[in-house]
Design a protein that fits this description.
- The protein has 319 residues and is α+β, with helices and mostly antiparallel strands.
- The protein has 2 domains: 2-172, Jelly Rolls, CATH 2.60.120.10; 203-311, Homeodomain-like (Arc Repressor Mutant, subunit A, Orthogonal Bundle), CATH 1.10.10.
- It is built from 11 helices and 11 strands.
- The protein has helices at residues 6-17, 118-129, 147-158, 171-188, 203-216, 223-230, 234-245, 249-267, 274-280, 286-297, 301-313, and strands at residues 2-3, 21-23, 33-40, 43-49, 54-58, 65-73, 76-80, 83-87, 92-95, 101-105, 110-117.
Length: 319
């Protein structure tokens, strides 16, 4: 939505994420404001800009969400617990339920918000670590993402398209996207429960996970589900895969789905295209899929499909 009324943007944000105190201290008469919002389960993502300076205040009761906000242009500041943090282009800061939170932005400020429900993130932490939170809130350090996490975060956001606010993912990919983002946060950004979980899953659990992935790769499948089926935490399963197989559960799932794609293309039933096969198995970026397919199998998926159709359509010799 594009508008010259910042109040419209505010209402759209309130509808998606709940109300908070928002004011425009130096409001301009004509502004360039807009929002691209995808309050899509299981993670809500939006890109917004008000076109005028803002002051935003959140109370602890209003903040039942964890937000991670990236400045795309302009600048601003965040104040919480007496700490003042500066925002500039490329900087991502955590917004979390830790008491009063105050944001101030200039007229040029544009940002991307990635928002998780508090209960969902806490539940994922317990499955990821294998340890209960015991009703304690998970607290992320009030600090910008470091260079490594910022790069990985930006890479993940790239799958959302040029605007960065539309989560148009295949059903199979949606199941793992939010978990991937939460795992990045828990592994790479300091938080109150960050501990080195160095114990790998037993080899039996790794074998069970491999079997579960192979049996269910055509369905929407998250690594949390795989870990639960294998009787271990997500973190220990990740370490077990690295120790026993030299890979990660996500990479192994992608490998299995790539093999299924090759099999589907070789059978080439009906009028299915390469894009149809890729999308059905959770591969959203066709160019990346084709490149990885060629790297793994030595030919492009279009070549496999073309060979199969030539074989199927080849006239039979008359007797």
């Amino acid at each position: 939505m594009l508008t010259n009324d910042p109040d419209q943007i505010a209402r759209a944000i309130f509808d998606a994420f709940g109300e908070y105190d928002l004011s425009f201290p130096r409001r301009q008469h004509r502004v360039d404001a807009g929002i691209v919002i995808a309050p899509d389960e299981p993670v809500a993502i939006s890109v917004s800009w008000f076109g005028t300076a803002t002051r935003q205040v959140f109370s602890e009761q209003q903040r039942e969400l964890y937000g991670f906000t990236t400045c795309l242009r302009g600048q601003g500041s965040m104040t919480q617990h007496g700490m003042d943090l500066a925002w500039k282009k490329g900087v991502t800061l955590p917004l979390q339920p830790l008491g009063p939170l105050r944001l101030e932005t200039d007229a040029a400020f544009k940002c991307r918000d990635v928002v998780f429900d508090k209960a969902m993130l806490h539940d994922f932490y317990e499955r990821w670590s294998g340890r209960p939170l015991d009703k304690q809130a998970l607290v992320f350090d009030l600090a910008p993402f470091d260079g490594y996490l910022a790069a990985k975060w930006a890479q993940a956001m790239h799958v959302l398209g040029p605007s960065g606010g539309g989560c148009d993912l295949p059903p199979l990919a949606k199941a793992t996207f939010a978990e991937y983002l939460m795992a990045l946060l828990l592994e790479c950004h300091p938080h109150s429960r960050r501990t080195l979980f160095s114990r790998p899953a037993p080899r039996r659990a790794v074998r069970d996970a491999v079997r579960y992935i192979e049996d269910n790769a055509r369905h929407a499948l998250s690594i949390g589900e795989v870990a639960q089926a294998s009787g271990c935490s997500i973190r220990s399963l990740q370490i077990g895969f690295r120790c026993d197989l030299g890979t990660t559960p996500h990479a192994y799932l992608a490998k299995v789905r790539m093999a299924l794609a090759k099999n589907d293309l070789e059978r080439g039933e009906g009028a299915a295209t390469v894009a149809d096969v890729a999308y059905e198995l959770g591969f959203r970026h066709l160019g990346r899929f084709s490149s990885e397919f060629r790297s793994r199998f030595g030919e492009y998926p279009s070549e496999v499909l073309r060979k199969n159709r030539a074989r199927v359509n080849k006239p039979r010799d008359r007797v």
